Amino acid sequence: MTLSDILRAKGSSVFTIGPDATLQEATQELVRCNVGALVVCDRDLERGERLLGIITERDITRVCAAGKAPLSAIRVRDVMTTRLLTGSPSDSVEATMGLMTSNRIRHVPVLSEGRMVGIISIGDVVKSQHDRLAMENQFMKNYITS
Known about the structure:
By secondary structure, the protein is an alpha+beta fold. The protein has helices spanning 3-10, 23-33, 57-66, 76-79, 93-103, 122-145, and strands at residues 16-17, 37-44, 48-56, 107-112, 115-121.
């Protein structure tokens, strides 16, 4: 199974935010969209959309724990993760699971020819593995009982 298979099942919607948004706005967007991460993009009419990073619940939690300033005073660009690990539609779910585990990340933007085509969460990976194992289990039961 590949990331393309997961995206085909779940859809390719990606929730984004600009780098100049405040963490208060990012938090509201995370809640509104019921997601754990927003991809940070710079939109320019001439250059198009550029992927800059990702802002996650974990990033915001770290800022809250530090208590240095209110969320409304801090910009996404100041705390987003910029060392972005990405996948491609042809990557296997197993390889992506390894990437996520070894790097302790929960979200992987999926790029095709430099353009974002979706995002995979650890929940998507677990669901795909669960579904595969459930199907294999059913095949084995059918084989045994026939």
